[in-house]
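Morning. Coffee machine broken again, so started the prediction first thing and wrote up yesterday's gels while waiting. Chain of 146 residues, entered below exactly as on the submission form.
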Amino acid sequence: MDEHYDRETSGGYVTNRAARAFIRALDRRLLNGSAGQMPVFLALIDGNAYTQTELARIASVEQPTMANTLARMERDGLIARTPDPADGRSSLVSLNKLGRKRAAEAMEAALAVNEAAFAPLSAAERKSFFDLLHRVIAALDADGRA
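Came back before lunch.
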């Protein structure tokens, strides 16, 4: 086999590098909070309330990661926890007033990062980029179920 691993043509390496660049750019724009809160903001910004388990699934992170994120957000006064009427052993997490304000600020920052990142691409290139990336994700998801 005459294949040589080249990280610059590795989908995982280049995608990870791009994701880290997005996170750094978002962190630079956020005055309060961090990019690590984005999955929670995205899940809860529309007034939804979820259990920690549901949030971990939505964000595609492990339970301990979500627990730590929520603990920091609770410490910072961004979320509220209420008893889950469907399961007395768990609670529902939602954004409080300050959390909704910070989520809106984070969404504005994310839009600015996306605009900066995709400014060099035409509308057709952007569409193609996302179409291809969604196909890659679907292929990897299917491979994980096989």
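The beta strands are 79-84, 87-95. Going to sketch it on the whiteboard this afternoon.
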